[in-house]
Amino acid sequence: MTEVLPSKVLVTGALGQIGTELVAALRELHGNDAVIASDIREIDDHPVITNGPFTVADVLDKDALEEIVIDNSISTIYHLAALLSATGEKNPELCERVNVGGLSNVLELARVHNLRLFSPSSIAVYGPDCPKHAPQITPLNPTTVYGKTKVAGEVMARYYWEAHGVDVRGLRYPGLVSWKAPAGGGTTDYAVDIFHHAIKDGNYDCFVRQDTRLPMMYMDDAIRATLELMATPVESLTDARAGYNIAGCSFTAEELADAIKSRVDNFECTFTPDIRQEYADSWPDSVDDSEAKNDWAWEAQYGLENLVDEMLANLIHKYEVEA
Ligand code: NAD
Ligand code: AKB
Prior knowledge:
The chain has helices at residues 17-30, 62-71, 85-90, 92-113, 145-164, 190-200, 219-231, 253-261, 276-281, 290-296, 304-322; strands at 8-12, 35-39, 54-56, 74-79, 116-118, 121-122, 133-134, 168-169, 171-173, 175-177, 203-206, 213-218, 244-245, 249-252, 268-271, 286-287. The chain is an alpha/beta fold. The chain is globular, with a radius of gyration of 19 Å. 2-amino-3-ketobutyric acid binds at residues 84-85, 122-124, 146, 175, 186-188.
């Protein structure tokens, strides 16, 4: 008689900024052993990831992924492996290969093995022609290769749902601000880096102009949005299912610096834009998330003030513990 194993969850790109926190949240929900973290990078020990199963897996190796899916009775994949905007622009060919090729592999595995799939999109799907307050539905003409891979990802996800009934869901995450893991090669990384430098050095040289306004979100909201979307009954979801807009808060780099200055004595912030300014300028200031609100009652809990309070309190504590 064949033993029927309980179904499990696989997270790709689990060592990244989102993965580190999503794996912890999923293990809280399903139990440590039911969530298999994977990444292309190897690790010996990790405060979160190694308290449950971890395996090295390249999302471009479909056969290896399939072996993990079969051997562990995987029923859901949270597919986080990707290259972000700044890294992607430095290596566009690899960015396309990983972001589009990797997603194509997991979509095929989802079709063949009847898996549910979470595949994140980004505010980077928008381009300069988009209104500053980005609607859910508008022409998507990104100028970054990363943005193009995210548009392609949404199109592929919708196709797999419509043509094959694969239950794939996605969110257009804003720039995510978190303290547990570093941000990984994106344009919105300044909104994370600024906190570390404020605490360690008392100053920060920001790589975008002070008037750069972008949609941002505290990680706790992003993780909750992910779990809420995945828990929503399928019949409640609409055509936005491959990339729901979700709004957290929207602030300029200067507003962020000022909020930190009002809490960290003598903090100084200068602004020296580099190439990432171009990517930031091509994205909207804020997003309209009415569809997420209507379809699955999405509501953010963090604005600029409580985001800054949380980031400073947690990072100061973290640095004290590490000292
Ligand atoms: P990250 O860069 O921090 O982590 C990505 C992880 O993927 C890394 O640990 C990396 O080692 C891994 N990876 C890269 N190539 C791989 C491969 N071939 N096989 C397996 N693993 C590989 O990224 P993140 O911030 O955690 O983002 C996760 C997802 O969320 C991505 O799809 C990203 O586009 C999306 N997203 C993130 C943000 C954000 O602000 N963090 C915003 C919008 C969308
Ligand atoms: C990036 O800046 O590349 C990411 C994103 C907004 O997708 N944080």
